[in-house]
Amino acid sequence: MRYPKTAFKTVTRVVEIKPEAEVEISGDTIVVRGPRGELRRKFNKEFLDITVEDGKVKLVTYDDRRFNRAYIGTMASHIKNMINGVVNGFRKEMIIVFAHFPMRVEVDKNKKAVIISNFVGSRAPRIAKIVGNTDVRVEGDRIIIEGPSKEDVSQTAANIRQATKIKDKDQRVFMDGIYLLEE
């Protein structure tokens, strides 16, 4: 810690650990394991102390400045999302929409990419990167994105949406693309 423990008012956050999850602190990394996998995240030991005790993760900062309060809240939210991800997982569903040119969507597991062919009649395929340990499936006109990390699932969905974004045309007329349906 940068400051002596008695210099400022302490701020504490407590996060409950679900019975199916296991949380471990290893240096400046928090590791969460569960039935859906393992997630790791680094944290700055300069601003907060993290301990695991009695089925709870306790986050403490010895400085109540605005940045430290924000950082402790952010880390508490990340830990909740990690626990929820390794126990339940996260899922997003997208829909493939086209008017005239039938779009073909394939998942290349080796390259960790979603390949979108014949988008608005273009010859070159558009490629969207699959981030992290995320599973992507195409079922008819739906794309299902699942994984233990909320950030990876969301970024993969954003990459797919960005790859099919139409620029320089009226989006009310040219509505072809892949859109987020439900989270």
UniProtKB/TrEMBL annotation:
Keywords: Ribonucleoprotein, Ribosomal protein, RNA-binding, rRNA-binding
Keyword Cell membrane: no
Database matches in InterPro entries: Ribosomal_uL6-like, Ribosomal_uL6-like_a/b-dom_sf, Ribosomal_uL6_a/b-dom, Ribosomal_uL6_arc
Record flagged with keyword Acetylation: no
CC terms in the record's Gene Ontology section: cytosolic large ribosomal subunit
Every Large ribosomal subunit protein uL6 alpha-beta domain range: 22-88, 101-177
Matching Pfam families: Ribosomal_L6
Gene Ontology biological process terms from the UniProt entry: cytoplasmic translation
Taxonomic superkingdom: Archaea
Molecular functions per Gene Ontology: rRNA binding; structural constituent of ribosome
UniProt record similarity statement: Belongs to the universal ribosomal protein uL6 family.
Subunit-level organization: Part of the 50S ribosomal subunit.
Its job: This protein binds to the 23S rRNA, and is important in its secondary structure. It is located near the subunit interface in the base of the L7/L12 stalk, and near the tRNA binding site of the peptidyltransferase center.
PANTHER family named among the record's database cross-references: 60S RIBOSOMAL PROTEIN L9, 60S/50S RIBOSOMAL PROTEIN L6/L9
HAMAP family: Ribosomal_uL6_A
Listed name of the protein: Large ribosomal subunit protein uL6
